[in-house]
Structure formats: C-alpha cells, structure tokens
Automatic annotation (TrEMBL):
<comment type="similarity">
    <text>Belongs to the barstar family.</text>
</comment>
<dbReference type="InterPro" id="IPR000468">
    <property type="entry name" value="Barstar"/>
</dbReference>
<dbReference type="Pfam" id="PF01337">
    <property type="entry name" value="Barstar"/>
</dbReference>
<dbReference type="InterPro" id="IPR035905">
    <property type="entry name" value="Barstar-like_sf"/>
</dbReference>
<feature type="domain" description="Barstar (barnase inhibitor)">
    <location>
        <begin position="15"/>
        <end position="95"/>
    </location>
</feature>
<protein>
    <submittedName>
        <fullName>Barstar family protein</fullName>
    </submittedName>
</protein>
Length: 105
C-alpha cells in the first residue's frame, strides 16, 4: 500500500555533466542533497536512490524529474551503463513518482 502522493508539478533537479565516475557520483550527491555519509560510489548511489524512490512511492514529497546531463567522455566509460541501470531501478521502484531524462551535455 502506498501513501497519498502530493499533487502539483514535478520537481526538477539537474545533475550537471562531469567527465569521470568520481565526479559524476559527487554531482548526483550534491544535486539530490544526499546525506553527509553518502560515499560517492555506485553502491551508495544505489542505496540513496532506492531510499528516495521508496519515499516518493509512499507519497513523501512531490514527484521528481532528474535531468542528468552526460558528457561524451563519461558516456564512453563502462560506468555510464552502471549509473544508467541504477537510475532505471530507482525509477521502477518509485511507482511513477520519479523520472529520469538523460541528455547530452
């Protein structure tokens, strides 16, 4: 059972482009206001996004759109697919309260 989702427009957060995995993970943490203990690694990104998705699915906060701007340098790395998969899992867990747009920077 899910809570009642607040009405209103989706909030929008932009995650700026970065050339390396370390910088991309840090950018997600900053843009989304992850807690101080966020470890800026793939496991930590997954954990924080799953927590966010669960909160949104339970009606905590307005629906959210993440616009992730991706540099060509990062898109060419194996980490791109890993981050994209983590984002897709969070979207699936959010019961349509989270959307992600990946755009070229």
């Amino acid at each position: 059972m899910t809570g009642r989702r607040p009405s209103g427009e989706r909030r929008r957060v932009v995650v700026p482009a970065a050339p390396s995995k370390r910088e991309v993970l840090a950018a997600f943490g900053t843009a989304l206001g992850f807690p101080d203990y966020y470890g800026a690694n793939l496991d930590a990104l997954n954990d924080c996004l799953q927590d966010l998705a669960s909160e949104l699915a339970n009606g905590e906060g307005r629906p959210l759109e993440i616009e992730w701007r991706v540099s060509q340098a990062f898109r060419a790395t194996p980490a791109f697919a890993a981050v994209e998969g983590i984002l897709a899992d969070a979207v699936g867990a959010s019961e349509d309260a989270l959307t992600v747009r990946v755009v070229d920077a």
